[in-house]
Amino acid sequence: MTLDELQKTVDGWIRRTGGGYWGKFEILARLSEELGEVAAALQRSEGLRPRKVDVDLPGEIGDLLFTLAAFANVTNTRLDDAVAKTMRKYDDRDRDAWQAKEASP
């Protein structure tokens, strides 16, 4: 699925449910919550949280992507364009930083 398809799929689901989009700040708060759930799932899967529970890291990442697509939709942002712009920035500015990170133990 492309990012454009993701945005259309999320938009279709939201419209089918009849509830419509939440406001930008409500979705942003939900995005923060979903990121926290990704972090918690990763901590549990790596044994960094004392209580081990069933972990669904891919599911949590999916929730994060769904919410990000909803946020992009309400802000009229094409994720494909945003990622392409970011990749150009990383290629121009941050390539060496990532290479140095990979070389570190």
Structure in a nutshell:
Helix content is 76%, strand content 0%. By secondary structure, the protein is mainly α.
Structure description:
With 105 residues, the chain is mainly alpha-helical. It has a single domain (3-78), classed as Helix Hairpins (Orthogonal Bundle), CATH 1.10.287.1080. Helix content is 76%, strand content 0%. It has helices spanning 3-17, 24-45, 57-74, 79-103. The longest helix has 25 residues, at 79-103. The chain is flat, with a radius of gyration of 17 Å. The model has no long low-confidence stretch (mean pLDDT 90).
**H-E order:** HHHH
Number of helices: 4
**Strand-residue fraction?**
under 5%
**How does the major sheet shape up?**
none
Would you report the number of β strands?
0
Distance between the termini: 34 Å
- CA radius of gyration is 17 Å
CATH fold type: Helix Hairpins
Mind sketching the topology for me?
Elements: H1 3-17, H2 24-45, H3 57-74, H4 79-103
Helix pairs in contact: 1-3, 2-3
Salient structural properties:
105 residues, mainly alpha, Helix Hairpins, 76% helix, 0% strand, flat
